[in-house]
Structures are given as C-alpha cells and as structure tokens.
Amino acid sequence: MKFNTNTTLGDIVTAYPNAAEVFNTHHIDYCCNGGDTLGKAIDAINLEEDVIISELNDVVNRTVTADVTNWSDASMSDMVDYVVNRYHKRAYELIGEIQPLLSKIMRVHYASHGEELLHLHHLYSLLLMELDEHFAKEEASLFPQIKAFDLDKSDATLKASVITEVLEAESEHDAAGDLIKEIDAFTHHYVAPSDGCNSYKRTFLLMKELEEDTFRHIHMENSILFKHILDTYQS
Ligand SMILES: [Fe+2]
Ligand SMILES: [Fe+2]
Hints:
Number of helices: 8
Structural class: mainly alpha
Largest sheet: none
Bound molecules: fe (ii) ion
Radius of gyration: 19 Å
Order of helices and strands: HHHHHHHH
Number of domains: 2
C-alpha cells in the first residue's frame, strides 16, 4: 500500500502497524479519529508534511510484512476472538497492576505530590469505569451477537442490533480516548517527578503501556472489525 495525505490514519496503521509509533510520538489520534486523512492530521499539528511522511517511510520500511495480519481474509468471529484474547486480556492485566500501585504512591507521596496524585487518581478511576463497563458490554452483548450474526447473516433483527451496538461502542471509544488524552497531558506524557520512587515510575510506565495498547485496541475495533461490519452491512 502506498499512502499520501488523502489516506486515512486508520488505513495506514492497518497496512503498517509500526506507523502507530510515529502517530503516538506526535500525539496524532489514529484510533478514535482513524477516519481522518493524514493531511487533516498534519494540518492540526505544527509540523511539516515532509517530516511526517519521511518518519512514516522510515518505520514503514522497517515493517516486516509477515507481522502484518491480513484481516481481510479473517472472519468476524476470528477478529472478535483476537480482540478479547489479545487486547481485553492485556488491559485487565495492566489495570490489575496499576490500581494498587496508584493507591500506594498516592499515600506515600501525599505530602509532596498529593494534589496531582488526587487528580490523577480521579481521572484514572473515571477511565477504569469507562473501560470496565465497555468491556463488559462488548464481551456479554456485542461480541456474542457479532459471532451469531457471522453464522447467520440473514437475521435482519440481529443485524440491526449489531449495527446499533457497534455505533454505541464507537462513541464509548471516544469517551475513553478523551480521558486517556487528558491523563497523558496531565502527567506530561507519563514523566514521573524527579523525586518519584520506583513505584511511581512503574505506575507511569504501565499507564503509558495501557494508553498505547488501548489505542491499538480501538484501532483494531474501529478501523478493522467495526469498519468491516458498517461498510458491509449498514444500508
Ligand atoms: Fe474491546
Ligand atoms: Fe471497544
């Protein structure tokens, strides 16, 4: 795939997953705004088009073709299984480690960083609630319906329900994405204070991983699985 400024961010990351590194570095939202063109995203930041294109070419040339899954050959059920086994599982692991660490550093560093940590704890709790409820909805309602629809595509009621819930899920991604961006900005891109202990640094490192993994997760859903469903079945 060749790309230019009219190519969407989602299509670029689908073809070249390493391109996400460039977008993350420049805080370009390729997941919730995966439908935006590269040109629109470049216009929104103070960087030359040539610089971004050259950085993208560098990572794209490093991309090993064998690592890129060709989702166009996969069934909707395969995509759902991949999302749950790869992304939901890792998010639960990260959240399970971040939660007690964040509580711990809030207590230990209350005297010097109480105000920031209270606000971070508040934002993270909101994100956790969003993700927890969203994952439950996908795993208990949307994904089983997608799998059932994959087996019987003639069921019009099921199709309508899948499309409704896909659109709801996309707007929930926007809400979670906005909270992640707020946390990213508030922590100055997860830089722990100079007097922060190892637990402080580890908390921020894990939060950064949760952010990057959630962006890849939303990209997989919005720009691959949900895009396939909406492009193929939404009338
Ligand atoms: Fe998900
Ligand atoms: Fe989702």
